[in-house]
Amino acid sequence: MKKDYLSYKSNKKPFSIWDLVVLGVVILLVVVLLLVLFLPKDAPNYINVYREGKLVKKVKIQDINNSIVFETNGIRVLMESDGVTVIASDCDDHACEKIGKITKKGEAIVCVPKTITVSLS
Predict the structure, then answer these.
(1) Do residues 119 and 50 touch, judged by C-beta distance below 8 A?
(2) How far, in Å, CA of 65 to CA of 46, rounded?
(3) Host domain of residue 89
């Protein structure tokens, strides 16, 4: 007996319940990831400068009207109301200068040879 393939109907459903569960979990993960990445973060409140792990300067960002230049251990730090930058360094590689301006809470600039860390909190 020959089957007519054009009129053949399968009893199998296109999706099982587990396919829908996996699809729902993937969509939920994508939504959570997008929210984490694109929701606005808290603005930083303080600029912290550490030397050898000890806090040497803490400036409240709201108190900065003009730019402030702070120098410690051969590193010159430019503090502004919209972020902080290392503008000069007397170490060999000048990697801390190349980082540029940091503007978000939790970001940091680290100069390893001079053991200086500048962070926003």
Answers:
(1) yes
(2) 14
(3) 46-120
Tokens for 49, please give them.
């400068």
pLDDT digits (tens, 9 = 90+) for 43-68: 888 999 999 999 999 999 998 888 99
Tell me if 85 sits within 8 A of 12, measured CB to CB. no
pTM of the model: 0.66
What residues are paired with 119 via a beta bridge?
A: 48, 108
Question: Residue 102's domain is classified under what CATH number?
Answer: 2.60.320.10
Q: Cα–Cα distances in Å, from 117 out to 5, 29, 70, 74?
A: 73, 35, 13, 13
Total domain count for the chain? 1
* The pLDDT of residue 114 is above 80: yes
The verdict on residue 39 lying in a domain is: no
Residue 80 dihedral angles phi and psi, to the nearest 5°: -130, 170
Residue 69 host element (H or E): strand 68-72
